[in-house]
Amino acid sequence: MNNAESITSKQLIFVIIGAQIGMAVFSLPRLVSAEACQDACISVALGALVPLLQLLIIERLGRRMPDLNFFGMNKLLFGRWLGSALVVIYVAYVIFLQGTLVRVFAEITVIFLLPHTPIPVVALTVAMTIIFIVSQGARVVARLNEILFWIILPLVFLFMVPLFKNSDYTNLLPVGGAGIKAIALGIPPSFNAFSGTEVLLVFYSLVKRKDEVLKAGLLGTSYTAMIYLLVTVESLLIWGPEMIQTFIWPVITVFKSTKVWVIERPELILLTVWTSVGIRPAMTNGFAAFYALSDVLHVNREKYFHWVVMAGTLAMFTVALLPGNLLVTFKLTEIVGYVFLWTSLLHPLIMLVFSLFRGKEVKNV
Amino acid sequence: MYRALSLLLIISLLMPISGCWDQVDLEELALPLVVAIDVHTPGSADPSNPPTQPSNKLIDVTTLAPNLSPKAKSPASVETISGINVLDARARRGIESPDTYTSGVTHTIIFGEELARKGLFPYLSHLARDARVSGNILFAIASGRGEDILKTPVKNHSHMGTYLANFFIDMQRRTLIPVVNLYQFAVHEGSKGKNPVAPVLERRGDRVIISGVAVFNKDRLVRILDIEESFNLAMLRGVKGRGYLAFRTKEDKEYIDGAVFVSNSRKVQYKKNQQGHNFIITIRLKGYLGEYSRKAPVTAESLKEIEKNVEKQVKTQCERLITKIQEDIKVDCIDISKYALAKDRRSLEKNIDKPEFIQNANIRVEVKVELNQTGEAQ
């Protein structure tokens, strides 16, 4: 591992946040409240337990094989062919999931900011940005995540302004009134929004101080959970459990309906900033996937990593253009979301179990 | 090779920065500030209205856009075009006007009374779908036709667009009339246990005034309240505002008139028992004494007396309005059903919007007035 491929545990916090918070934040309140009604925030809070469990599993796994990367672990535990196949499944999952993210990003940009610009043009711009950043290596991806984090931090305060203007607390009541079944049904869309935690499978081997990985992961995921809770509570307070269903991205519509001091259209500021940060998950998860893929293909990263990145991003771009419209995109995201459970939870869990069974071999590594 | 590729990427990323596809010259734009939508009336649209089958003319869309060209004779142009729906009218405008219409700066939308009585949902759809439309657009109903409001000549403003903007801005700092934007209307129209209200604009000669408040049952206008009732509605509904309230008391066989300037707030308590759904609405009015015709100085005791008189007067008026709502209007326009839903959403949401709910509810009003000042005079 060279210097460009190592990151600090502090940078890992921003990497995890960057991998998790993308375009899903805008539609999360609608998706969760469709099931959990006024109790959507309870479902979001419970959904946050899944990425926390993921973190624990991946950290335990990494601790057992600190010198191996994601591909190396799979190869050791499952053999060359099966190990490679499992990594390729992960790469395909990232390409599909982040391809749909690029599409949603392009759709939002076209609907709200550039109505006459063709979607492929916006998606291509995003793809080129991803190629440029990811080719630079883990450290650049981590640093960029850190910089973008500080750029959007003021938006968190902007997020809170509408709360003081249009909220109606009765929209959240009665607490628990939706019923246990409804709250439980709201959990899957909630933990799907946390997809991205699995980047730790790849980034674990790149972190300098392994003893701080769990702490960094907890901080990152807690921040994401806090943001998700904030937007869900806010959207519910403002739109209510019925109206929230009428908007594709209720969080953006909240800002469309609020004047912030002298700013007549705060949603345009939100989206302008978001155009720079919205692709973070594609960039971060993309790096993790292409890094793992370069291991599978035995590519000399110093010389040819950018070719892997270009090929992978081209695939991502193609996926982004596959759906005929936004509704099909959401359907595709939902289908890919089911794979999330495999790549993020079951795969690491099976790896951990295998590493326990193969205790001696793992220790020798 | 890698460096050349990176440079190529950076250059190609810079190319779309100008937003090529979306670049429009400001001079080519028409920016309608106010839009009025009415039921189609033959002869209403401009003679140059593009040919359409009469049966396809369902609504008239009137727009008021300022003329940006310095050579323009009038400060604004008001045009009416007919169509099946709003976007059909906009499509016809495309073959009649050289300007590109954009709805990004529209600040007021007015619906004609007849259209509002039919139901506004079909016409709200495009407003919700068009991302350029702001949720802060002010929402009003015209007594009669909205088109007439826009075609009223104004004297002390450059055009009706600025007149209406000035009219509505800060209105809640000077009267107790509810000012509603598109978002607020939509939330009340689309939520269980809620119903929207909107101010009513009326043309009186060469003036446009607010003549009351329109009460909706979801998207359909059911009643227009007069100004006095509108003040009481705002207080009962908890629409925060500030304004003058005149009062009259009788002391020693003599009538004494006065007025207070108050800001309002409300609190609603809900309880369900054997008698049914019980609501206690507490209205708090806080402000100062602005006018008082009695010659003697105002003492602490007489100020308390004034407070009691205002309390009594507001309570009586509010109770009268509640009776009207329960017996005549039969729609919860005072926004109290949501407190019942907050207690038991699951069992109540099916019946909350039925007229029987508000008709049979036990609604009690309490008014508390607090006057802190008597102005400069004692």
The overall strand count of chain B is 15
Largest sheet of chain A: none
* Biggest sheet statistics of chain B: 9 strands, mixed
Global mean pLDDT of chain A = 91
Q: What class do helices, strands and sheet pairing of chain A give? A: mainly alpha
Radius of gyration of chain B: 26 Å
Quaternary organization: heterodimer
Number of strands of chain A: 0
Mean pLDDT of chain B: 89
What is the beta-strand fraction of chain A? under 5%
Based on secondary structure, the structural category of chain B is: alpha/beta
Most extensive protein-chain contact, per-chain counts? A-B, 40 and 36 residues
Task: Name the poorly predicted regions of chain B.
Answer: none
Number of helices of chain A: 18
What order do the helices and strands of chain A follow? HHHHHHHHHHHHHHHHHH
N to C succession of SSEs of chain B: HEEEEHEEHHEHHEHEEEHEEEHHHHE
Shape of chain B: globular
Indicate the proportion of strand residues of chain B.
25-35%
Q: End-to-end span of chain B in angstroms?
A: 88 Å
Give helix % range of chain A: over 70%
